[in-house]
Design a protein that fits this description.
By secondary structure, the chain is of the alpha/beta class. It is built from 22 helices and 19 strands. Strands 8-1-10-19-18-17-16-15-14-11-12-13 form a twelve-stranded mixed sheet, with helices on both faces. A seven-stranded parallel sheet has the order 4-3-2-5-6-7-9, sandwiched between helices. Strand 3, helix 4 (about 90-105) and strand 4 form a beta-alpha-beta unit.
Length: about 525
């Protein structure tokens, strides 16, 4: 897994490294050189090309000066734009600017250094590449007018724009871009992956992201005790359940699903099928008798049982007697998809939470019941609980505004998981899975085509299916998010994002598991 850090945590890593005796000037040199190495790797020979490097006053600008120098050495024509007078630069940035000015005195280097201004921009030859070294990870808040014209100019270029550490105008922790930000084709970030590159507007503004090693010792990262990571395929492979040679349908995971109501049969069907496709040996669906005939006909592999229901087509209080007879059978219970909020549903959900002591996945309408009753309902429960809310449901669970959640997605889901002693899969971009110990795993798979009705029901079924096969609770949750997203990515490869529906996620689940297990793109 890749460690994910905030801007403050990365600053701490830099300071600890320098305190160990590694000069900040060396870290800056390593950073700038790593960008140039990646430029040559991605864009090929650059001799004779014209590259514009936009350099701010801080260390990000210093990185830009190192980049400009190494590009000059490789035969590139470089134009450096300064946002301040040379005497205003400080520290390592000042040192590297002084070195670069010495280079400029030798006409053979094809290097120009000038103060950025609208007239300077108009006089520039058309660039073949633009380097954004305007702001670094220390930027936060609103972009000021004096720098806005430079960001607008960079975004207007037909040439590729490469951001240094993070696109200027983006918050390195939250990914928020208030006002404007550089729209980069590629971002080279230093040391460790910044959370802002995965969140909000900066996720799209960053383009392809590369993490460059600049010499931060592993011991510094270990000392940081960071609690946020980005999942990768290699992390999922060893955790997926292996079937023993003597397996049978009742030893490979039994999932009990309580779902469905009149008008919402699809949610129950998708969840049940996803649990089966995830490897569960037996799936039993308990559904109101109002929709039992439909689901019994539709689901040929799942066991389907009817529950007493009211005239509104949702379960009634008598359904609890039937449900109780099956709870001990299950390795995992999935509660909520398509249950509705009619009649006695809230009472049924609350009773299960108060009585059941096994493994419980709450989704959809079960989450709405919890939101109405309050987090105390979760805290009183003796079950091990995993929740699968989207941002709207999470807002109702926490009382936070949706915008506040998106601004602080990682910390908000971490806090709720700790407070409720549960695993929480906060669906969205990216999906963030938190455990009760404060660990958060950000998901690296998925695409916009998955924003379709029923997608969450499929995810809930995968969570239940993996957990029932013996996976640890938090691992089952974040691995399910990865598999779910990968299935969506494979579906998008085959049929495109626009036409993707929830059923496609189930259709391509087997290919997703095969890709993870073999490492091959079949």
């Amino acid at each position: 897994m890749q460690t994910v850090v905030t801007a403050e945590q990365m600053r701490w890593c830099d300071e600890r490294t320098i305190a160990m005796g590694v000069p900040g000037l060396l870290l800056m040199e390593n950073a700038g050189r790593s960008v140039v190495d990646l430029l040559h790797e991605q864009f090929g020979p650059m001799q004779g090309a014209h590259v514009v490097v936009v350099c701010g006053k801080g260390n990000n600008g210093g990185d830009g000066f190192v980049i400009a120098r190494h590009l000059c050495v490789s035969g590139v024509h470089v134009s450096v734009l300064l946002t301040a007078a040379p005497q205003e630069y400080r520290g390592d940035a000042k040192t590297n600017l002084a070195i670069l000015r010495q280079f400029a005195r030798d006409g053979r280097n094809r290097l120009q250094i000038r103060r950025a201004s609208p007239s300077a921009l108009r006089s520039l030859a058309e660039p073949d590449l633009v380097i954004d070294a305007l702001f670094g990870t220390g930027f936060a808040g609103v972009l000021r007018r004096p720098q806005r014209f430079l960001i607008d100019w960079m975004n207007q270029q037909t040439a590729a724009v490469v951001a240094v550490d993070i696109p200027s105008g983006a918050d390195a922790t939250t990914g928020r871009c208030i006002g404007a930000s550089v729209d980069a084709s590629m971002t080279v970030t230093f040391g460790l992956l910044k959370s802002g590159l995965l969140l909000n507007e900066a996720r799209e503004a960053s383009g392809r992201v590369y993490v460059a090693d600049i010499g931060i010792p592993p011991s510094v990262v270990d000392q940081g005790k960071f609690r946020t990571w980005l999942s990768e395929q290699e992390d999922v492979r060893p955790l997926l359940p292996r079937r023993p040679f003597n397996a049978n349908k009742y030893t490979t995971g039994k999932v009990l699903i309580i779902a469905g109501s009149r008008g919402f049969t699809g949610a129950a069907s998708l969840a049940a099928t996803a649990a089966l496709r995830s490897g569960a040996g037996a799936v039993m669906l308990l559904t109101p008798e109002s929709v039992y005939p439909v689901l019994a006909r539709k689901l040929t592999e799942a066991i389907v049982r009817p529950l007493p229901c009211a005239d509104d087509g949702a379960v009634n209080a008598q359904a609890l007697d039937v449900i109780r007879t099956h709870l001990d059978w299950a390795d995992v219970v999935l509660l909520g998809p398509g249950l509705s909020l009619q009649g006695n549903v809230a009472a049924v959900v609350s009773a299960i939470l108060e009585e059941y002591q096994g493994n419980l996945v709450l989704d959809a309408d079960a989450l709405s019941v919890v939101a109405s009753a309050g987090a105390s309902l979760l805290k009183r429960s003796k079950a091990k609980i995993s929740l699968t809310p989207h941002s709207g449901e999470f807002a109702r669970l926490t009382g936070m505004g949706p915008r506040d959640i998106e601004t602080d997605r990682v910390e908000s889901v971490r806090a709720y998981a700790r407070a409720t002693r549960s695993a929480v899969i906060l669906k969205g971009v990216p999906t963030a899975t938190a455990s009760s110990d404060g660990t958060v795993i950000l998901n690296s798979t998925g695409n916009p085509g998955m924003a379709t009705v029923g997608s969450g029901d499929v995810l809930a079924g995968i969570v239940a299916g993996l957990w029932a096969q013996g996976m640890e609770q938090h691992a089952a949750a974040w691995c399910a998010a990865f598999v779910h997203g990968l299935s969506g990515d494979i579906a998008a490869e085959r049929i495109g994002e626009r036409s993707l529906v929830a059923g496609d996620l189930i259709e391509y689940l087997p290919k997703a598991f095969t890709r993870i297990e073999t490492g091959r793109h079949e």
